[in-house]
Amino acid sequence: MTNHWIDVKNADAILIMGSNAAENHPIAFKWVLEAKERGAVLLSVDPRFTRTSALADLYAPLRSGTDIVFLGAMINHVLRNNLFQREYVVEYTNASFLLDPAFGFEDGYFTGWDPEKKTYDRATWKYQVDADGTPLQDKTLKDRNTVFQHLRRHFARYTPEMVERICGTPKAEFLKVGHAFAATGRPEKAGTMLYAMGWTQHTKGTQLIRTAAILQLLLGNIGVAGGGIAALRGLSNVQGTTDMGLLWNSLPGYLTLPSAKAHPTLKDYLEKETPKSGYWVNRPKFFVSLLKAWYGEAASKDKDFAFHFVPKVGASFTHMDLFEAMYAGKIKGFIVAGQNPAVSGPNSTLERKALERLEWLVVRDLFETETAAFWKGPGVDPVKVQTEVFLLPSSTHLEREGSYTNSGRWLQWKWKAVDPPGNARSDGWFANQLAQRLKALYAGSTALKDQPILSLTWDYGKDEPDLEKVLAEVNGYTTADGKPVRGFAVLTDDGATACGNWIYSGVLPAEGQNRAKSRKADPPESLGINAGWGFSWPVNRRILYNRASADPKGQPWNKEKAVLWWDPTAELPDGKKGKWVGVDVPDFRPDLAPDAKGGGNPFIMRPDGKGALFGPLAEGPLPEHYEPVESPVKNLLSSVQANPLAVIYKADLDKLGDPKEFPIVGTTYRLTEHLHTGSITRNLPWLVEMMPNLFCEMSKELANEKGIKNGDAVIVRSARGEVRAIAAVTGRFKPFKLGDRVVHEVGIPWHWGFMGLAKGDSANMLTPHVGDANTRIQESKAFLVDVRKA
Amino acid sequence: MAKAILVDTSKCIGCRGCQVACKQWHGLQAESTRFEGTYENPPDLSARTWRKVRFIETVGEDGRLRWRFISDACKHCTDASCLAVCPTGALFRRPWGAVDLDQELCNGCRYCVAACPFGVVTFNEETGRVDKCLMCPDRVEAGLAPSCVTTCPTGALSFGDRDQLLSQAKKRVAELQAKGEKGAQLYGERELSGLHQIFVLQERPQVYGQPEQPQFAVASVFPSSVTSVLASVVMGVAALVAFRERGGKGEE
Description:
heterodimer; A: about 800 residues; alpha/beta; Dimethylsulfoxide Reductase, domain 2; Rossmann fold; Barwin-like endoglucanases; six-stranded mixed beta sheet; 21 helices; globular; B: about 250 residues; alpha+beta; Alpha-Beta Plaits; two-stranded antiparallel sheet; 8 helices
């Protein structure tokens, strides 16, 4: 989240789209209701009417996979009716920048498309610059080459009529939502957007979120209290895991993982990855400090800080890439903790088959999951499976201490409540054991390949690791004396500091001062910044880009919800006067006056300091709608049917469905009563009694057509497989009228599997191995199925 | 001072935390259920399910779909039929209003089952006695709120002095009406001389499966005497009928 959960209460409008927050974030949803109590309008846009929609002021349905059209039409509405926050847009975004006159867009493609290589040459995706390389601007926004005018032309095709024909949203319903949210374009108003996997799990998920970001920038909603874009994380510490480098292509603190081709040496890495301006100019300090934290003494300056120890990527290792490689027999062993891919992975038939091709598999979990038990799953002959499976009992979150980082970037320490039963061990214990035993195994080796393990700094205790020691390393310290650093501002690129994750630096600024443990709440009538509760990365800042909450002169757009302002009389430590003050930590140089050079550039992580309305991604610098890879209809916006850069896997089990055979849109989701693959919740009788069986939600109209009654058993089938479910025939799903065509959609929760107390088929038997052009996340929110009575 | 639980349906997100918290606090076993086409499960309040959330799909006069949620349990009536017909004194009233149950004294006669106008008192086949929500006297008398209330994440459930909750509820109804929710109404202020579980509803009580005018069952038969033999016989017959209906349903 750019902001945080409690800040949602400050919003004047809340758009929940691509998320079903009431069902999947029921505890935090109280802040949405709090906003409502204070007069906010709650908007729910979803293919079906959910428990979130039930609480919303306005609900609009849309066909899965068409969100860019809906949001694009909101952008068009805002631009055509002059509802954008002009001063914000002119001063804080790249709207006024002039683009290369050769840049353009035609019939689904941006300039530079190579139809043979199927790639883009990005040569024209750039600004016009002067002799110094500074982008040319037209602050009147009238020049046809401005980003602003490109935006107008690009989204002019995204009309309310188009929304009706593509999304199936009645025009009137779309306009109601559009008007309500566009009202936050006034300087003193704020709107926030809450999204989750309903926006990401598409072949154009990244562009979808960019569409949202563009709309938020146009409305001046970024950086302000009650604004922002909220990525709602699906588990309590998902944010923490990505922060710590869990993503295959990132190191802790979102430092790029070096690649074998581009970064053979540290010099290559630092030169290529460090921009000339913006806050990332500090990247070498963060990266070298990370190497020092990991490799200690071995990371000496004359040895390039042991850069050669860092694994370099040569290929893509996303979830689907890993499983395709496993299916192709290229992976020997697999350690699984905190997930259950036999249920959560798309095309589970393929992914379960892939597990059969491993030599060994280690699963750490609370119960025997479907992944651990794949060898005795439906249709599998255990005799023929050679994989050796180790199932290790794991402790629950209540049986171990540690920190959680929530969706709002808050690190909160959590204490152990009870000891784990039997031999169940914590994740920390397992990692500690693995590292110590590998070190012992390689002891004395001089082989180069063993040196990274041998050189790894590892001193957290023998059994259960001291997690505050880990946190101290994550926070960073000066290498000479081991004393904690107070924050990443003092990190250096010469080896004098070590830091395990620069964005977390400051969480433990002095010995014994673990800020994740602090518990001082703000009064309820305040803005809810809660600076004394936990620690929010970076530097305990609660609202990112908060310089943008003040106007170019440094005064808050909204005085009642002021976050930050320029005080010319406030004294600095050196006696000089003038600094940014307010309720939050400034996301800005504290002494940089509004009228100084760069004083009006709130987006400090970007080289130009401006919010990017124009921002290159794999498939273009502006978002464009394409149909999902599996779609029952033709793309009405261009002749390009699906994202030309969507990743489509081609193993024998990677089949795609023909809309003639599979005319119905399928989508998957979660329920309040179960968590993810149900590996815990399907083993808890009280939750099982509430949601005992897999079901398939469908409209009354579709049920009539198919002769299905509420409660009947049905078969849902895709090109990949089929599942047996119970029909939930409901008025909450409606057929989509697209022009003179009717398209049906059905929805299936993905919590079930063949183990546990409540057994059932997995919805991911139906979903394809098809991925987003930028992240390769699976397209499991829009695919093709057919339904029949069982 | 009379206590009560206030259920504000306009703040309920149907998460069913209350339903589970109740089972957890009282150690109530899970029921074996099947998905029958609705999110609601178990199908009804029972000896093992003292609180449950009902899910109701309705279409308003404006043609718009509504999905209503109500956390339902014993209403702890002032004119409590169950208490009135109980021949053994197993059902009794706490000084702060809750209608409680002493399992030791229950003889399993089931008069209360038939008498309850809300259908919440249920016979427990395993124990041969009846069961229902007790409003967590162990918690309340230790200064805590009932477990359902403590668990509710959105403030849809609150616990406190009945008078105070009533004025809070009235204010809420007025707010909802001012926002255009014409169906907003209070339920439980005067019904049966006052319920100790009161509701802010967004529709008529009937929509939520609640009687519009709950009747004191005994009053309709025998105005004053609640211990008369005749009343007991009448109630006994009624209980038997009710029990057979329920039993038959369970066998399907």
